[in-house]
DNA sequence: TCCGACACTCTCCTTTCGGTGCGTATAAAT
DNA sequence: ATTTATACGCACCGAAAGGAGAGTGTCGGA
């Protein structure tokens, strides 16, 4: 247990002030977008539509995996609202609805591509880190 | 209102079966990782540490923006567990804790970089899409 | 002697997430 | 006449996320 005096020596290592923030309105908007877009279901739907092109409701559900109808509807509606997907309703019976990525959606999908690659490349490393953490905790 | 017969003509446009899935265990793990990593707070903390280098608890909180202590602690602990951040405790009084990205964390940050750029580049477009959606809804 | 600083933890409390199940419209197939 | 298929909306419910505020331990400074 060292004294608090040692603190200053640590402190001097980085002394830059908190940098000036950019326009808070834009910042808030970007955070909002990140909050919506960095969502598990959004990412999975994006991914599914990206590699399948066009899918209808139930097909999309199967492509995503274990997602409930409710979440699928909800997420897809939000994505439509944000201009990420295009929803085409064919007025036939029984109903038929097609979903496709808009150019905006495609660009986001491309941006997320790096994250997918990262996840596939580093999952083993994460598992190791978790084990190391658990082991270190016992001691 | 057209008849359901028109359906088949729509249907024939894409006729590929759902493609074979990859190893379900890996797939589940990747989805789990995505679920953890594609989190608003994780992304914001990653971003903050990426551009500030090293931060201590309260500094990190300010850098992120409006985050509660609870969420900050919680997220940062999860990130530590997954090997994304390194946490250094200086045993002085009052306490002093430093947070830095690990190489793994830096690589994830780099992967997310594209998403940040995307968000900054397209936020205006999203706003327009939302307005268009709201306008179309009235009609 | 009391306050403030730091990095939390702990206890409520409210909001959101997400699942299940039911209803609906209508034509075609059995 | 009954069933089936499709893409949902709606209501209900438990679980989890997340915020607010108080408490903690110790020391240096007023």
Structure description:
The structure is a homodimer of 139-residue chains. The first copy, chain A, is mainly alpha-helical. Chain A has a single domain (22-137), classed as Arc Repressor Mutant, subunit A. In chain A, 65% of the residues lie in helices and 11% in strands. Chain A has helices at 6-11, 24-37, 40-52, 57-64, 69-81, 103-138; strands at 54-56, 85-90, 96-101. In chain A, strand 2 and strand 3 form a beta hairpin. In chain A, helix 3 (40-52) crosses helix 6 (103-138). Residues 1-21 of chain A have low confidence and may be disordered. At the A-B interface, helix 1, helix 2, helix 3, helix 4 and helix 6 of A face helix 1, helix 2, helix 3, helix 4 and helix 6 of B. The structure holds a DNA duplex (30 and 30 nucleotides).
* Helix content class of chain A: 55-70%
Order the strands across the largest sheet of chain A as they lie in space: 1-3-2
CATH homologous superfamily annotation of chain A: Winged helix-like DNA-binding domain superfamily/Winged helix DNA-binding domain
Name the helix and strand elements of chain A from N-terminus to C-terminus, one letter apiece. Answer: HHHEHHEEH
What is the level 1 CATH name of chain A?
Mainly Alpha
CATH architecture of chain A: Orthogonal Bundle
The CATH topology of chain A turns out to be Arc Repressor Mutant, subunit A
Question: What integer is the average pLDDT of chain A?
Answer: 83
Number of domains of chain A: 1
Protein name (chains A, B): ArsR family transcriptional regulator
GO molecular function, one term (chains A, B): DNA binding
Domain HTH hxlR-type (chains A, B): 23-127
Keywords (chains A, B): DNA-binding, Transcription, Transcription regulation
